[in-house]
Write a structure and sequence with these properties.
The complex is a heterodimer. By secondary structure, chain A is an alpha+beta fold. Chain A is elongated. Chain B has 17 helices and 4 strands. In chain B, strands 1-2 form a two-stranded antiparallel sheet. A two-stranded parallel ribbon of chain B has the order 3-4. The longest helix of chain B is centred in the middle third of the chain and has 35 residues. Classes of the chains: A alpha+beta, B mainly alpha. Chains A and B meet through α1, β1 and β8 of A and α6, α9, α12 and α17 of B.
């Protein structure tokens, strides 16, 4: 079986390119801690909406998605806070997207999703439901308000 | 070759019914861009709701058109290469199963009882006939595989030392992938969803249903794509005036698809709970594996086209591009195929971005996603399907293509519309614009508290692209049905162009048999999916009751 020279080159380039992609992913994971959400075993404790202040700069948010709102719907935190979001759904599947912070999770009945994010800059961050969840889907939004005393 | 009247009838129906349904499907595509751009600030238009229209758009364009065409094109390929028609009764059985499924689902959707989108994620509940319709469409599309396998075995007995024709190999591989992946969705629909929607069971495991759906869902896109690949490998080089650069490359690519099309589904669930990061990462790596056959194809097709251009007397490094039959009426398939390939460059690159694990956080479920897959399924897949439907119909009926000059312009118009649309969608997605959302009533309504001015330019671009694509598609509808209504000009024959190979390698036995590949396929599948399903089983909590689209309170009885 003979293989054409240019075909050999192309296979080499392809494998090299894919190697580069894999390297970049692992590099970003190591250096910038980018990762997909953490999966937790189901625990009923997370189904009650809640904001826990662990210390000045560390928060836990138990976010519960339902047709067609997130609870809590407004989350006030100071600049520099690190927030653990725990997410579940009371009914159908919902999405949870904080686009500015690349937070992207699905809220599913009978399951707990988790991610951690640090808010370094003041501002209002939209949390948008990005999974179709029935007729009110387009109105389903919450906000994280970082150092925005006037909004209170 | 000459074929029977019955064969022609099945093929005509399987090509024309989905093209007729496209009028509804594409109308709702246009409508979504209108709502989303905030031109309409309402939940419905002409008595059809946004999400009802979105369901019709997805089901008709992505499931019905693609499945009907794959079956019809498979019949045509088998009959043409084996010079023998498939079993008549089984052809009709398959057709009637698929059609009855489509009619059931169409009723449920048009009656507004199944506005659950084409992914039908529970616990949003659709009417049981929607699920049953989907199941019948799938079961109907299984039937031909078994008949074709018999035809193939018969041929192989007499042709031990001959290479299986590439198009036949592709068709069989495609339907094997389809059969295996649809087992999961058939289980989801028949065992989990139908009893639940009928009220025989009270709850459903949502995480399990999602995982089963995506076992099917990603292989589904290869089921759409492989008929187009078969056209690119076995028809395009001939039309372009050249030869297929390498026959063996095509076989390698096809078998790699057999291995890697299914065990990658969790890359659609990177943002899901219940599946661990390790399993997600593994599926991400396997997804890079399935990129390899597409890279091979990109090279082989480009090399074939360069060869064609040089055969046509081109000079210089890029002169071959100019020499190709871009606007040749008699070679209109070229215009459609090359247009699909141009879109697929962008579709492929954005696809690799989506597959890239944590990078998916940036784009998951945003407008970026439809921006991506419209350049695949509504790129090479859609253009290949409509062009080949027209070609097979006109040859088989002996009719000439209506408005042939216009016909060569349509695909380029489609490319322009699609690039504008997808640019708008991708840009919007990067700014957090969600997909599957009636933006016009909230985020794109200046009077609403949720108004987002930064999504105005992105949704306007999508609207502009949508209008251009709608015009192109309607022109095709006119040409297709104009051809059907025209008079017969010559004897109808079954004929498809066949490309010779430039590097026609000797038969390599490994690439001409299924067993070792099927074994490898099953091993990889188990490695990828046993851990995923164990994860889901371990991390899932209570199962969910039934929810209607308009009520946060679960439904106690199934009747409504």
């Amino acid at each position: 079986m003979t293989i054409d020279q240019s075909e050999k080159k192309v296979v080499g380039i392809t494998l090299g390119l894919i190697g580069l992609f894999v390297f970049s992913l692992l590099y970003a994971k190591g250096k910038y801690k980018t990762d997909v959400p953490v999966c937790l075993p189901y625990d009923k404790a997370y189904t009650e909406p809640k904001i826990n202040k662990l210390d000045e700069k560390t928060y836990q948010v138990f976010s519960v998605a339902a047709m067609w709102q997130f609870q809590p719907s407004e989350i006030y935190i100071p600049v520099g806070s690190e927030v653990d979001f725990y997410l579940t759904s009371k009914d159908v599947v919902h999405g949870f997207n904080i686009a500015q912070k690349n937070v992207n999770m699905m809220a599913v009945y009978g399951a707990i999703n988790k991610t951690t994010v640090k808010f370094d800059k003041p501002g209002v961050y939209d949390i948008i439901c990005h999974e179709y969840c029935g007729i009110g889907h387009q109105n389903m939004r919450a906000q994280v308000i970082v150092n925005y005393p006037e909004a209170r | 070759m000459q074929v029977s009247k019955s064969f022609k009838q099945v093929i005509f129906l399987e090509l024309a019914i989905p093209v007729a349904l496209l009028i509804i499907g594409i109308y709702h595509g246009l409508m979504q861009t209108i709502y989303r751009a905030g031109v309409l600030h309402q939940t419905s238009f002409a008595k059809l709701d946004y999400y009802q229209g979105l369901t019709l758009h997805g089901v008709i364009n992505a499931l019905v058109l693609t499945t009907f065409f794959a079956v019809a094109f498979g019949h045509v390929t088998m009959a043409f290469y084996f010079k023998k028609e498939p079993n008549r009764k089984l052809m009709w059985l398959s057709f009637w199963l698929m059609l009855s499924g489509v009619l059931m689902a169409a009723w449920a959707m048009l009656a507004g009882k199944a506005s659950v989108l084409y992914t039908f994620y529970p616990p949003l509940k659709a009417h049981p006939l929607f699920y049953l319709g989907a199941a019948l469409l799938i079961v109907g599309s299984w039937v031909p595989l078994f008949d074709w396998a018999v035809m193939y075995n018969g041929w192989k007995k007499e042709n031990q030392q001959n290479k299986t024709p590439l198009a036949v190999l592709g068709t069989l591989i495609n339907f094997i992938i389809w059969f295996v992946c649809t087992l999961a969705v058939a289980y989801e629909v028949l065992v989990l969803l139908i009893p639940w929607s009928m009220g025989w069971t009270d709850t459903v495991n949502v995480n399990l249903a999602r995982t089963l759906f995506w076992f099917f869902g990603h292989a589904l896109v290869y089921f759409w794509l492989l008929p187009a690949y078969i056209m690119f490998y076995t028809i395009l080089p001939k039309i372009a005036g050249g030869k297929l650069y390498s026959d063996l490359a095509g076989r390698v690519a096809l078998f790699l698809f057999l291995l890697f099309s299914i065990p990658v589904g969790v890359h659609h669930q990177y943002s899901d709970p219940t599946i661990t990061q390790g399993v997600k990462f593994f599926h991400g790596m396997l997804t890079y594996g399935v990129a390899i056959p597409s890279f091979i194809t990109a090279f082989t097709i480009a090399a074939s086209l360069e060869y064609a251009g040089r055969e046509r007397g081109s000079k210089g490094l890029f002169g071959w591009m100019v020499k190709l039959p871009w606007f040749d009426e008699s070679k209109y398939l070229f215009a459609y195929f090359i247009s699909g390939l141009i879109l697929f460059v962008f579709g492929g690159v954005t696809g690799i971005i989506n597959a890239s694990y944590s990078l998916n956080n940036v784009v998951h479920n945003t407008a970026w996603m439809p921006g991506h897959f419209h350049m695949t399924v509504a790129g090479p897949v859609f253009l290949g399907i409509i062009a080949m439907s027209l070609y097979i119909y006109s040859k088989l009926s002996g009719k000439r293509v209506f408005l042939p000059k216009l016909n060569t312009i349509i695909p380029y118009l489609w490319v322009i519309g699609m690039l504008i649309f997808s640019f708008g969608m991708s840009w919007g997605g990067l700014r957090g614009e969600p997909r599957r959302t009636n933006l016009g009533t909230s985020y794109l309504n200046p009077d609403n508290a949720l108004f987002r001015s930064d999504w105005v330019p992105t949704t306007l671009l999508a609207l502009l692209g949508g209008i251009i694509m709608f015009i192109a598609a309607m022109m095709f509808i006119v040409i297709f049905f104009g051809t059907i209504l025209s008079k017969k000009k010559e004897e109808g024959v079954l004929e498809i162009p066949v490309s010779e190979a430039y590097h026609d390698e000797k038969r390599v036995p490994l690439f001409d048999r299924f067993k070792p590949w099927l074994v490898a396929m099953i091993v990889i599948l188990l490695l990828a999916y046993v851990p995923a399903l164990l994860n889901v089983n371990k991390n899932s909590g209570p199962k969910a009751p039934r929810f209607n689209i308009d009520n946060p309170v679960p439904q106690v009885s199934a009747k409504k």
